[in-house]
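Journal club side-thread
Mid-discussion, someone asked how the predicted structure for our own chain would compare to the paper's figures. Pasting it here so we can look after the session.
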Amino acid sequence: MCGIAGVWNVKDAFSVLHDVLLGLQHRGQESAGVVVDGFKTIKGKGLVDTVLTEDRWEDAEKGIGHVRYSTAGSLEDIQPIVAFTRKGRIAVAHNGNIPNGEKWIDMLQEKGAVFQSTLDTEIFLHLISMSEGDIKTSIVKALKKIPLAYSLLILHEEFLAAARDPYGIRPLFYGRYGEGVVVASEDAALKAIGVEDVEEIPPGTVVFFTNKGEEKVKFSSKERRFCSFEFIYFARPDSHFLGQSVHIARYRMGEELFRENPIEADVVVPVLDSGLSGAMGFSSASGIPLDIGLMRNRYVGRSFIMPVDREKIVKKKLVPIEDVVRGKRVVVIDDSIVRGTTMGIIVKILREAGAREVHVGIHSPPVRFPCYYGIDTARKKELVAGERDVEEVKKIVNADSLFYLSLEGLKRAIGRNELCVACFSGEYFHD
């Protein structure tokens, strides 16, 4: 996952981009970057406040920005990417993943295309440059060729374009800010800076923002498949997708989790922060008191999106409060188990703090299949539940019991069916 932001006709665009990206920092903590008027660029490894330092380019009124989560990559892979094309100079920021990206890259290289990074994001640049017609027509033609999975921002001297793939897998919102427009991956990041009239960009749609207003172009229509992991883990709890509150959805996941798996215990302990809402729902449904048995160091990044050294990160990030868990039957609630490393360490931490029993409740189904649409959930053999049943996973994390939310329970909690659940079901929908 990544976070993208864009501004058009907004005073002090650099500062606005900084603040919006700060509101999206949870979506990526490896690198950050912005491109503003005249395609002036600043980007580098690190958090937003580390990379986007000082006030710059106070006269800038348009631009795009990106925060990136951790995968393999070099400095060349930090977005936004700027390119000189047949249609003029453009910059691109991309959230998502093109499942057949390697084939596209091979095909384009055979036609003479030169790639400056390892990112599938560059596919859009080449397709736009190679298409016939004006720049807007070329963008629409390029988007039609890539069915999934992306939310995309394209900066041109004459406009800012914001697009979502036809399935609507990745999120994107925009709203009014003064005389201009601000775009971001989550509505909460927009509302936090005072953006008004926030609305979702529809799937299969590109919106061109110009000095004359906005122009919406519907380029494709598919059966909607919004990423369920946005609700489960990635998004801020104060964000909304499909008209649903992320916090309320997670709260209901916790309620459903207890209804499906009633258990007796003394205390419910959330894994902060994404497990908190679910733990609240579990506590409410069960009557088991909720307490903060694990204190989070908020200056350590999210361990799910760390490429290496997860054990060291988790031990630095979560510190037990012994007086809460000592001698008690603890139900620890988390959003998901992917590789199993993090939860195994959490169980160990709680036992060392004196917990009599440690039961693990996960307010999502087992992640059994890799994601090809933009989440780094590894290869199937690296997923702890990929080829193991619940009892085997329980032994690996050394819990007294382990229980997951069912896929049906997840859908009930979110209240919508138009979800991508391929990482749980293995039912992909590549075109």
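Post-session note: The chain has two domains: 3-224, 245-425.
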